[in-house]
Amino acid sequence: TLVEQLPALNNRSAKILLGDLEKQRANNLILSRIPNITQQGSAVIRELADGNPRFIVELCAQINKLFPDPDLLITAQNIQEIQNKGLLPYSVENLFMMKYEGLSESAKEVLKKASIIGKGFTLKEIVETQNNRQNEDISSVINELKEKEIIEITDLAPEVQYLFNNVLMRQAVYSTILRGEKKELHNRIAQFYETRYAQRLIQNSELLAYHYHLGENKEKAFCYSKLAAERNQVMNNHGEAVYFYQIALQNCMNPADKTELTLCIVDSQFYLGDRDTATATLEEIDPSSITDRLSLTKYHFLKTRALYLGSQYEALAEYLTQVTDFEGKYGAQIRIYQLDTLQKLFRSDEFEALYAEVKNHYLLMATEALNIKGKDITIAKLLVAYKQLPDEKQTEDKKLSLYLLLKLEAINLNSLINTGKYREALKNAEFQYELATALKDDFSLRIVSGALGIIHTRMGELDKAYKAYVEAIGIADRISDRFGFAKVLMDLGTLHRRMGDHRKALQNFQRSLKVFEALDNKEFQGIVAHDIGDLYLWEAKYDLAIKYFRKELKMALQIGDLLGVSFAQDAIGDILFHTNKLDKAKALYHKNLLHQQKIGDNEGIAHTYGNLGNVAKEEGNFPLATEYYQKNIDMTAEAGDMDGNGRGYFNMSIMYEVMGDLPNAIENMTIALQRFTQAGSQQFIELATKALAALKQKGE
What we know:
By secondary structure, the chain is mainly alpha-helical. Helix content is about 75%, strand content about 0%. The protein has helices at about 25-35, 40-50, 55-65, 75-85, 90-100, 105-115, 125-130, 135-145, 165-175, 180-195, 205-215, 220-235, 240-250, 255-270, 275-285, 295-310, 315-320, 330-345, 350-370, 380-385, 395-420, 420-440, 440-460, 460-480, 480-500, 500-520, 520-540, 540-560, 560-580, 580-600, 600-620, 620-640, 640-660, 660-680, 680-700, and strands spanning about 120, 150-155, 160-165. The protein has a three-stranded antiparallel β-sheet with strand order 1-3-2. Strand 2 and strand 3 form a beta hairpin. Helix 1 runs parallel beside helix 3 (about 55-65), helix 10 packs antiparallel against helix 11 and helix 29 (about 560-580) packs parallel to helix 31 (about 600-620).
């Protein structure tokens, strides 16, 4: 769109942004360039340019050159006459070709070479593509191009650099060069760069890959594009990495190398969050044709990742029974996915046995890599030893063993959070943050920062939670981690809800859900669906709430997410309770309690005790309600869940009020308000404040 300040158009150098202009703005733009023009003349220019502001400006400049008298009234007939004579272009491309044809032969030749180099160029680069010419010979040509406003100076240090004023001009000129000449010139400029940057070839590999590829030099294009891809992959520039791996693939002659390049492309596609494309690319490879052990392990790792990210946990557990090589970087990471999958499937005995075996193995790896002697080696001791090493000795083999231990700790942390052990989880997360920082592992830093946000939210430390989330989403954005970005958006939604801002919470949840749907991640689609449903439940919009809770349950059952089933059944029970279907609510709560006890969902168990207490209270069974509420209070206090603990005291207070016991009602509501204040639960603070005031007034 055009810049908003239309008066600025009176300045010939005003910046104009490309985009279609509405009629009045287009007319204003034309009048700013040709003040003495008829409405019909303006309409002809507008139609010719089809609303493109850049084309309008260039057409006006051409008309002013052909009719230099400022007092001459420009009519539609004037414009049509010069158009019929071929003096006015019919398209943007023709416009730039007319400019090009109006140059001297020397200027045309220089411009051709400049278009080969790229959007920007220096005199040295131009000379390299010219035969028997020096800098001083080109000076007059450069001046001509500057005067015609085709190029401009963009940088003065360390040497003068020139830039095409418009990328379309460069494209138009480039299209006039014959293929054979293009090949020769691209190779010549690539050889110039190869000599010039001989000591920094890796840093300039993108430039060399570009020119050798267009120069159809397969050997060198393969070499430099592979270097460029690897360099970008290390820097988490996965979009660029995929681009250069694909160029390398086009220039690759060795079948084994082609397989390895394809695996590298899949790896980066996963990092970009494009699971469907990555999975489709992976399926192009026949694993039985892979003879290299490392490449085969990498294939299994990527296949594991595809199933995991698709929440296909049962299929993944079955697939891993066929994998026998768990050595090396990729084999070890397959083990991490295997452990996480067993945990998600609540196959506790298998998980615990494998976890202990793998942890001991990785501790031994790290001990040997860091050359540490003695017994009772812990991860904390290994970290201290690693941090004491000078930078040059913090090698990949030393990092790998610590990285794998970090991933194991992340699995353990997730379990602590899911079972409501927040104090223990906080200590674990703070140590992981220190370890990830030492390893300079941005991906793990994103994960643990997000985990810290969740823990601080549950413990009512909302400022700390917000700070952790801001760090996590910043890292996710920097490393193009789409899943991580969506995960933090979801968690921020939970934080906004805790703070009482339902509008922001819903916005975050909906944005997050769209990303998870695009990633086809059913597990987190279910989690966000629960969050949205819970928001609508609080607002008593039961029809909307049940829609999202059913979606959550469907997703959880599809992928075998037992924790998701627990959350969904609990939420559906809440709707039954709030719509006075007490018998159905009680039956579902009891069914869910057995499920939660089986999978060790302590947070869910505590919540269900509170729900069963509510049912008992409505039935008038106050002793049973008291028993359930006390269990809820004890479990949430042990976990450090201030919000959940406050709800327990709140429900107990309401029960005492129904019983006519105002002193106990006031005492419990006072504690509830304290807990909600500690948790920063704004909506419950307001609710408890009003309830306490009403109780005190009632007791007067």
